[in-house]
Write a structure and sequence with these properties.
There is one protein chain. By secondary structure, the protein is an alpha/beta fold. 32% of the residues lie in helices and 26% in strands. The protein has four helices and eight strands; from the N terminus they run E-H-E-H-E-E-E-H-E-H-E-E. It has an eight-stranded mixed beta sheet with strand order 3-4-2-5-6-1-7-8, with helices on both faces. A hairpin with a 6-residue loop joins strand 7 (134-138) and strand 8. The chain starts with a strand and ends with a strand.
């Protein structure tokens, strides 16, 4: 059974935090789908990932090699690369059945954006309301610290 980890970004922007999360997921041997809310936002992220130090093997959906990508960036809900891990950013939708079918789902959101906070709270409420185990992580005090946990129903 999968679980959702919510990452509340307060000290780093998405483009700095996400490569670290992706690196950790790759070390687990996971295939990853990174879902953004729009194709434009996914393209923006793609450009930032190429600028970061170190190489993260990735591609954008629609490249013709989607199934082969260890990290697939997409604005769609299809899982063309058969991921073990789904990362949603900027309020991209995530459904309880998706979380439960993954090893891990990460919801990454900007802690300085009131709308992003409300969206993440709604996602937490929806997922945990459907019995999805979830953990909320914050970097307020420096390093990532788990601030809340919802265990699976049953």
């Amino acid at each position: 059974m999968g679980e959702a980890y919510f990452y509340h970004l307060t000290r780093q922007p998405l483009e700095a935090a996400l490569p670290k999360l992706l690196g950790l997921a790759l070390k687990q041997g996971w295939r990853i789908s990174v879902r953004g809310p729009t194709a434009e936002r996914v393209s923006w992220l793609d450009e930032r990932l190429w600028l970061e130090e170190g190489f993260l093997p990735h591609g954008q959906a629609g490249s013709g090699f989607d199934a082969d990508q260890p990290i697939l960036l997409t604005a769609n809900t299809d899982m063309a690369n058969a991921p073990d891990c789904l990362i949603c950013f900027d309020g991209a939708e995530v459904a309880p059945d998706e979380v439960l079918s993954m090893t891990r789902t990460m919801v990454v959101f900007n802690g300085h954006d009131g709308e992003a906070l409300e969206t993440a709270r709604g996602q937490w409420k929806t997922l945990t309301g459907e019995g999805v185990p979830a953990k909320y992580w914050s970097q307020e005090a420096g390093p990532w610290e788990m601030k809340a946990e919802h265990k699976a129903d049953g």
